[in-house]
Amino acid sequence: MSASQNVVVSETTRSSIITSSNNNSSSSPKPSTAPPGLISISKKKLLKNLDVINGGQRINAWVDSMRASSPTHLKSLPSSIYSQQQLNSWIMHHPSALDMFEQIMEASGGKQIVMFLDYDGTLSPIVDDPDRAFMSSKMRRTVKKLAKCFPTAIVTGRCIDKVYNFVKLAELYYAGSHGMDIKGPSKGVSRQKRLKQSLLYQPASDYLPMIDEVYRKLLETTKSTPGAKVENHKFCASVHFRCVDEKKWSELVQQVRSVLQEYPTLKLTQGRKVFEIRPMIEWDKGKALEFLLESLGLGNSNDVFPVYIGDDRTDEDAFKMLRDRGEGFGILVSKFPKDTDASYSLHDPSQVMDFLRRLVEWKQMQPKM
Ligand SMILES: O=P(O)(O)OC[C@H]1O[C@H](O[C@H]2O[C@H](CO)[C@@H](O)[C@H](O)[C@H]2O)[C@H](O)[C@@H](O)[C@@H]1O
């Protein structure tokens, strides 16, 4: 198999780079959501770049993409990357969900609200060690109350077991491994309802042994790179570079790619300082959202108002799904302007908690039907 068969797609391909120079808006795949100043590189274009150029340059393209996706780089260069005007324009297109709370509730117009929450960077702050990405007890209490008011799902790149160890709420729906492992609540609904809802959907179950094998090979291959961390998420795997010295990034890319060359049915994507290795199947967080709505009997309803909150590129699939369905909306958790299909923004997990609290308070004030 040729290396290019092993499709290499960076999740940062649409990650927005805000420049102080004039925007070439023709490069943006979604002019309607990208305010002036945003340059989006389409997936197709990046694939072409990555596949046409020779091996060495392809590694460089990856390293560039790793740099571009690094929030610390954005943080250290804000004024040279985007102007205040561009920032204002982005905020105008993606206002704070807290500032717009009343309007959002009005738009929900009495429909059934369903909540979808990403985990890392949304419910828990981003930290160096993925095993220590704890959610605060305040956040847990808030999510618990939220689930009493609305059906609530956690949609994450982590496997269900790992995310459950952090969240510890049995009354939630879980879509782990980027939506490839879906489970219904085991508590908080009546027994009969629970039996009906005893959801278990694993569209990539055939990949289980392959992911396990790849995980072990990645562990072995990357052990010479200090700071690299490999995680097994059952139907996908992650290789973290948050703690890897930038000088070693190209070495790490080569190591990961060398392992993946033997697995043409897996794809490599990039999240927040992490490589994600996933089966090449037509399934993502957006599909998981759709599946969950259908399982709730709300798939073809005009009466549903889904709200998805997430911070990462993989959450864009869910934001887009909501836009395409014309239902509810997405909220991007970010302090920085990014090209996104979300309608609103929140800065960080503490603002997410404030928003969820207000939702609970709002629900409690509604007349009982
Ligand atoms: O879909 P998500 O819930 O956002 O999962 C995506 C990745 O999240 C985790 O990594 C991220 O959070 C870590 C802890 O804060 C951080 O160290 C890392 O840099 C982030 O990318 C998780 O560990 C990954 O396996 C997931 O792919």
TrEMBL record:
A family per Pfam: Trehalose_PPase
Enzyme class: hydrolase
Single GO term (MF): trehalose-phosphatase activity
Cofactor: a divalent metal cation
GO BP of this protein: trehalose biosynthetic process
Family: Belongs to the trehalose phosphatase family.
Function recorded in the entry: Removes the phosphate from trehalose 6-phosphate to produce free trehalose. Trehalose accumulation in plant may improve abiotic stress tolerance.
Name of the molecule in the record: Trehalose 6-phosphate phosphatase
